[in-house]
Amino acid sequence: MPTRPDPVAAADDEARALARSLIDGATHAALAVTDPADGTPGISRIALGRAPDGGLLTLVSALAPHHAALKAHPACAVMLGEVGAKGDPLTHPRLMVKARASFIAPDDPARPALRDHWLIHHPKAKLYVDFGDFAFVRLTPLSALLNGGFARAFRLSPEDLG
Predict the structure, then answer these.
(1) Lower CB count within 10 Å: N or C terminus of the chain?
(2) Strand 28-34 and strand 75-80: pairing?
């Protein structure tokens, strides 16, 4: 049986730019995790942003189910991209990033700078960012898949995401 060609292309400059714009413009994302109780997948909406070093960052409450899921199974994925005002929702660009989560300890010397940076882009978080149950979580990209619209799919490396 003949093999079918891979419909997903390697990233080019246009794909990299689109992926970076989706990340840079995101204030939230859908987070896919593995439920530690039964091993099934789960999805949560999270606040998302870039850390000062350009990496992906979120702020998670220990009360949220995805907190326990990320602690038990750090492999996760985030989906970025918004549906436009017109047209088929599946024709609008979106980016899926496979990542590994790592929690930043409350006493980590980098936390104050992360907090200040986070509040610039998420000012409403000032209400809860200092609560003891909240932790910053780095989401280190492992790979990504960009759907740039009809017949425009690209595989991206962590380096492609900037």
Answers:
(1) N
(2) antiparallel
Q: Tell me how many degrees the CA angle 11-17-23 measures, rounded to the nearest 5.
A: 105
- For 27, other C-beta atoms within 10 Å of its C-beta total 9
User: Looking at the whole model, is its pTM more than 0.90?
Assistant: yes
Amino acid at 122: H
Sign (positive or negative) of CA dihedral 16, 145, 95, 114: negative
Number of neighbours of residue 138 by Cβ within 10 angstroms: 18
Q: Which of 76, 102, 80, 103 is nearest to 92 (CA)?
A: 80
Asked if residue 23 lies in contact with residue 161, where contact means CB atoms within 8 angstroms, the answer is yes
Whether the CB-CB separation of 125 and 117 falls below 8 Å is answered with: no
Supply 50's token pair: 């870039």
Burial of residue 81, with CB atoms counted within 10 A of its CB: 0-12 exposed, 13-18 middle, 19 or more buried: buried
The enclosing H or E element of 47 equals: strand 41-47
Give pLDDT tens digits for 11-52: 999 999 999 999 999 999 999 999 999 999 999 999 999 999
Spatial contact of 126 and 119, defined as CB atoms under 8 Å apart: yes
Tens-digit pLDDT profile for residues 70-112: 999 999 999 999 887 777 777 789 999 999 999 999 999 999 9
